[in-house]
Amino acid sequence: MRLGLAGTGRIGSTHAEILRDLDEVGSLVLADADSARAERVAAKLGVEHAPDIDALFGAGLDGLVVAAATDAHPELIIRAVDAGLPVFCEKPVAADIPGTLAVLDRIRKSTVSAVSTGSTGSDTVPVQIGFQRRFDPGYAFARDAVRSGDLGWLHTLRATTLDPAPPPAEYIPHSGGLFRDCGVHDFDIIRWVTGREVTEVYAVGTNRGAEFFAEAGDVATAAAVLTLDDDTIALVSAARYNAAGYDVRLEVHGSLNSIAVGLDERMPLTSAEPGVRPSASAAYPGFLERFHPAYVRELRAFTEVVAGAAESPCGAADALEAFYIAEACETSRRERRPVRLAEIRR
């Protein structure tokens, strides 16, 4: 198959290298608003380069991968589905809820291209959103353990996402804030692992880091208590300053047993207990290293979607639900009160 990729920054370049090496991908074409950057990345990887987005859409594609800046996501998704092209897009679908709803409405009205997938034209265009944790073996094991009943009924989940260092200052004003940019991965995986919906949140945030967080109305550290629709409690913690290393974990506690994702020799925590030796393994420096195998599985899954062999494993509607939770948390943080999800969905 012939795929296009829009956006050749850090995550886009990573995706391009993965796609180039997949047996399922026969050819790959890269484009970027910064054409020179796309050309450099294409030359480095030995793949094709389109001078602009118009040329990319005219390159005879079977599917499109979107890894551009967030503000470009809605236009690129809509353009792809209007052309009948299956599309993979990094989260979020759009920068806000109205924008996300508008994209979902366009997807529902779309018709898949018979040329790209062999479809009869009766289905909507498949859209896959990039929540890579769904493709990590640890999270998949946790989901299976919950669904099988091995843990009994759940009472508590603890989700942690701690970055080793903050992103560049210029990124923060356009990131959507810590809950929408970072915590949204935890919100999605809590829904996916438990199969439950969040009904209410209470969130707080502080900023003891660089001034550019406060200047953008953001925080560098945040926490939220989520109440699920079966009264399970989920605790979510996120931070931009965790110099010990990239720390992403999920604890799932049930009436019969408890398990943890990310509890391995690379977890960036040192035990304070006497006689317990520190791990000899270095912590993950960032999310690209921690989740690289998951990114490979995620993009291979997209090739199956493009081929018409599988449905999207994470649709735009799933991304909207995680966004609702993030929006509720941000509202709670700003207004210092519990927020019910029904209030955000109005």
Provide a descriptive summary of the structure in words.
- This protein is an alpha/beta fold and 346 residues long.
- It folds into two domains: 129 residues, Rossmann fold; 181 residues, Dihydrodipicolinate Reductase, domain 2.
- 38% of the residues lie in helices and 21% in strands.
- The protein has 13 helices and 13 strands.
- It has a seven-stranded mixed sheet. It has a six-stranded parallel sheet with strand order 3-2-1-4-5-6, sandwiched between helices.
- Helix 4 packs parallel to helix 5, helix 5 runs antiparallel to helix 12 and helix 7 packs across helix 8.
- It is globular.
- About 3% of the residues have low confidence.
Task: Estimate the mean pLDDT confidence.
Answer: 95
Strand ordering within the main sheet: 12-11-7-10-9-8-13
CATH homologous superfamily identity of the largest domain:
Dihydrodipicolinate Reductase, domain 2
Strand percentage lies at: 15-25%
Give the number of domains: 2
The CATH C-level class name of the largest domain? Alpha Beta
The total beta strand count reads 13
Roughly how many Å apart are the termini? 41 Å
Helix share bin = 25-40%
Q: What's the architecture of the largest domain in CATH terms?
A: 2-Layer Sandwich
Helix-strand makeup class: alpha/beta
Number of helices: 13
At the third CATH level, what is the topology name of the largest domain? Answer: Dihydrodipicolinate Reductase, domain 2
Low-confidence stretches: 114-122
Order of helices and strands: EHEHEHEHEHHEHEHEHEEEEHHHEH
Largest sheet descriptor: 7 strands, mixed
